[in-house]
Write a structure and sequence with these properties.
Number of domains of chain B: 1
Strand content of chain B: 5-15%
Number of helices of chain A: 6
Helix content of chain A: over 70%
Strand order of the largest sheet of chain B: 1-2
Number of strands of chain B: 2
Shape of chain B: globular
Radius of gyration of chain B: 11 Å
Largest interface: A-B, 14 and 21 residues
Radius of gyration of chain A: 19 Å
CATH class of chain B: Mainly Alpha
Number of domains of chain A: 1
CATH superfamily of chain B: lambda repressor-like DNA-binding domains
Structural class of chain B: mainly alpha
Order of helices and strands of chain B: EHHHHHE
Oligomer: heterodimer
Distance between the termini of chain A: 41 Å
Number of helices of chain B: 5
Distance between the termini of chain B: 13 Å
CATH topology of chain B: 434 Repressor (Amino-terminal Domain)
Structural class of chain A: mainly alpha
Strand content of chain A: under 5%
Shape of chain A: globular
Helix content of chain B: 55-70%
Largest sheet of chain A: none
Chain lengths: ~160, ~70
């Protein structure tokens, strides 16, 4: 017999907020990694800042990932693994962010699949290569996912 | 924002002297759900509409109305 757990809506909201922050951290990590490949002067201040961002975002992502694991006991398995929540507004925000992310990945993925190796595109994005373009797409998708969650859940209402 | 739907949750809360958190706890949703429904930024399901109406002992039409 399946063990039933009582899920608190506030815990679902906290879990989704952590997920949003993790997505932003991932976006910063991908962006910093992308920038570090094109900065030629390894002794410059910008390179140091990019390296620092890379390290900080990686650590922050790991911390948030560990923090989110604690919610496995408090929210439903469906919520934890598929971001389907019982609370209506939290579920609406989760669906909205995933839908936007999915659209970005599908449109960008389709573009890269058909034009990623074409000469004009390679020349256009130089000194980056098609793999970097894919990384940029992932960065954009992660940033959109996180920003939408944090914006929708962080927005304060008029009435209290 | 649903332009067609109006609600009287704020008025009912003031009449019953309860906060958004208390209403949220009573019907088992997050405060965010209540606040977004109240400000018209989120349209709730029939289940939540019925729960809110039942909590205030009024009909759904007394909570939600079409503009």
């Amino acid at each position: 017999m399946a063990k039933s757990i009582s899920v608190l809506p506030e815990q679902e909201q906290q879990f989704l907020t952590i997920t949003g922050k993790a997505s932003i951290a991932l976006a910063f990590f991908l962006l910093a990694e992308l920038l570090s490949t094109v900065i030629s002067k390894t002794d410059s201040v910008i390179y140091l800042l990019v390296d620092l961002t890379l390290f900080a975002s990686f650590i922050y992502f790991l911390v948030l990932g560990t923090k989110s694991m604690k919610f496995a006991k408090h929210i439903s398995k469906l919520g934890f693994w598929t971001y389907k929540f019982n609370d209506e507004y939290v579920d609406y925000v989760s669906s909205l962010s995933l839908r936007a992310t999915c659209h970005i990945m599908v449109i960008g993925g389709a573009f890269l699949a058909y034009s990623g190796d074409s000469k004009w595109f390679v020349e256009l994005i130089a000194p980056f290569n098609p793999t970097d373009a894919l990384q940029t797409l992932l960065c954009l998708a992660a940033a959109t996912h996180g920003a939408l969650i944090l914006w929708k859940l962080g927005k304060e209402e008029l009435y209290e | 924002m649903n332009e067609d739907l109006d609600n009287h949750i704020h008025k009912l809360r003031l009449q019953h002297k309860i906060s958004q958190q208390e209403l949220a706890d009573a019907i088992g949703v997050s405060r965010k759900t209540i606040s977004t429904v109240e400000t018209g930024r989120f349209t709730p399901s029939v289940v939540i509409a019925l729960k809110i109406a039942a909590h205030f002992s009024v009909s759904v039409e007394q909570v939600f109305t079409l503009r």
